[in-house]
Structures are given as C-alpha cells and as structure tokens.
Design a protein that fits this description.
Number of helices: 10
Structural class: mainly alpha
Helix content: over 70%
Low-confidence stretches: 269-273
Number of strands: 0
Largest sheet: none
Mean pLDDT: 83
Shape: flat
Order of helices and strands: HHHHHHHHHH
Length: about 270
Amino acid sequence: MTQHIAIPSSPAARAEPWRWLRGAWHRFGLHLVGFASLFVLWHVISVYVFRSILFPPPFPVFRRGIELIENGKLFVEVDASLLRILAGFTLGSLLGVALGLLVGSFNPVRRLLEPYVETLRFIPAVALITVAVIWFGIGESSKIFIITYATVFIVLITTAAGVVAIAPNKIRAARSLGASRVQIFFFVTLPATVPFAITGMRVAMANAFTTIVAAELVAADHGIGAMLWNARLYMMIEDIFVALVVLAVLGFIIDRCFRWLSDVFAGKYSSAG
C-alpha cells in the first residue's frame, strides 16, 4: 500500500498570500474605505440630518441606477457624453501640445501667440456655448468646439512650461555629442515635456467634463447634461443623483489613468536623465 507523505510548505510559501493581501490593502484599501465612508456620510445626512425628498439616500439612487442600466438608457447618455469629450479633448490636446512646443521652443512664436493665449484663456468655455450654437448649430460640432476650447489653453501652457523647464546643460550636452536639432527635439525636448503635457491634460479633462455638462444642458437630446436637464424638468430627483454619481465615478477612473500615465512617463524620463 502506497503511502503519501505530506511535505510541509516553507514559511515563505505560507506567507505569500498574506504578503499579497497586505500589498493590495496598501494600494486599494484606503481608497475603498474612503468611498465607503463617503456613501455612509451621504446616508447619514440624507436620513438623519436633512430628510427631504430633494435629497434621497444612496440606496434608492442605486436602485434607480440599476434600472437605467437594465433598460440601456444610462449607457446611451454616458456614451453620447464620452464620445463628445473624447473628440474635443483629443483635438484640444493635439493643438495644445503642438502649440506649446512651438511657444516654448521659439521666442518669436511665443511673442506672436502670447496676446491670443493670455486673453482668450480667460474667457470661460461655458460663456461661449451660446456663440458656439450660433456658429455651429445644435449638433455635435458646437459641443466639440467648446470642449476643444476648454482643453487647448491648459495643455498649451503646461507643455510650454515643460519646454522652458529643460536644463540648458542637457541641450548643450546633446549638441556637444553631435545631435542635430531634430534629434534634440525627439530625444531631449519631447521626453522632458511629456510629463508636463500629461499633467495639463489631466487638469483639462476636468474642464471637459464641466463644459460638456453645461453644453448638453443648453442643446442636446442625449448625454449626461441632457439627462440632468430632463430630470430637473420632471422632478426626477433620483435620476439627477444617478447622473452626479456617474460623473464622479467616470472622473475618478479617468483621473487615475492620467495619474498612472504621468507616473510612468515621469519615471522613464527621470531614469533616463
């Protein structure tokens, strides 16, 4: 009769799951606690402090959100807003990075464009919604224009600041090694500017969310802003809070993505430097 002898696992193998759990807790635990405390605070205030039909507790809002997910309405509204944000934000970021590199690299370009930048960027994008509707109509073009406008100046300024922040010794060292202007741009200027540009894009994304909601409140059939407006007209309070929660969750996820990209590119550049 064959006997199976159990070989005891090593202490390191037994400690491996606990090490993984500790790492996961350090990375995500406090975030989960923060989110849980937020909803607990919401529940306490809505039930015990400010009891009103205008401020529903989180559980009815979650039930309404599940209903909107099941009938597909929430996906339609979120998809419409995200597509507009993606189009306008991408266009504004590309223009901002290109112009920022030019402004930061060439003094004549900076002096030429500075009057435009330093005046137009102080006009809020939401103030141009009416003008955009008059120019482009109530279709997608007006909303994309508004988001592009809300994005371009922030990305431009941060990108130009990244170019200016490059240490002159790095450029001199590249020139002494025989690097051409094109090589200096691609191997010195551009890598040093990427973290600054991503930071500007991260800030501009918050502006894009604010702007698209305001634009959809004025002229849109679908989108999170249109959902808020229709819910206000018919006093659908739970729908309003569903839209607010969706905006908060989407913003948090997108901001985490930008922070991760910033850490990756900043780490690459610092290790290369």
